[in-house]
Structures are given as structure tokens and as C-alpha cells.
Amino acid sequence: MSDVGRLVDILNQPSVTQFLSTKIPSPYTKEDATWWIQEGSKEGFIRAVEYDGELVGCIGVNPGNFEYERAGEVGYWLCSSHWRKGIMRDALRQIIALTFSNTIIERIFACVFSSNLASQKLLLDAGFRQEAILQRAIFKNGRFYDSHIFAILR
């Protein structure tokens, strides 16, 4: 609960949220952060990302359902003041290892906005392969984006 204020600060940064799902409310409130800490972060395989003892991001793998139960979608965000320091690269490598060693998931995938070149590079650097580009698959803030699909297998 001590990270509520930090969550609110980070998830109200447009540079952080521009390529995130609209499942994350905007503006992001203390109530949203409290719900996330108490309930939302308990679904899937979620971890806080810390740097020098401070919350700077979040990463998680959400398993699919039914016939997709052996696949999980990875998602992440990082405070813009901590970009380009290798923090998310390390977090991504750790969540891959944790997921493959502690769950039945065989495939981790990510869906990335076409404009999010940094995330695409991050995934490739972490060993993901690009599988597809789904044209005009994402619609956010009145604009279409292609969805770039990346995956890594156990």
C-alpha cells in the first residue's frame, strides 16, 4: 500500500501509458492503485519492478483460458525516468525464467503497438521472435495501429 502514490504518479504519465491497454484507467486514481495492489495484481503472474528500492514499473504474464491455458501474454510498463537503463530488459528475462519454471505455460507472447519501436527491440533482445503483424488491430485514442505479435517458447 505504500506504493499507491507512486503508482498514481507513474500511470498518469502520458509517455508511460501511450502504448498501454485502455484497461488501465485514465486518469489513474488512488482508488485504481488501491484496487490494483489489493486485487488486480493477484491475477496472473505479476511482479513489481524496483530500482534502488523504489517502485519504477510492473511486469506480468497473464495465462490464457481453456485451450489457451499453456500460453500467457506478457505486459509491462516502466517509469519514463528509468528508460534505457536495462531495467525492463532484466525484468523481462526474470519473468520469462520465473514463468517457465513455475507454471505450465509453454508460450509467452506480447502484442505491441506498431509505433512502440523500443518495446519491439526489447522483446527481440530478450529472445522473442516476431510472429505476425495484425493490420489495424488496435484502436486507441481515435487512431488505428498495427499489432506486432512476438513470442518465446519454453
Automatic annotation (TrEMBL):
Database matches in Pfam families: Acetyltransf_3
UniProtKB keywords: Acyltransferase, Transferase
Xref: InterPro entries: Acyl_CoA_acyltransferase, GNAT_dom, N-acetyltransferase
Cited Gene3D superfamilies: 3.40.630.30
Highest taxon in the source lineage: Bacteria
N-acetyltransferase domain span: 1-154
GO molecular function, one term: acyltransferase activity, transferring groups other than amino-acyl groups
Family listed: Belongs to the acetyltransferase family. RimJ subfamily.
Full protein name: Acetyltransferase
The organism of origin for this protein: Alteromonas marina
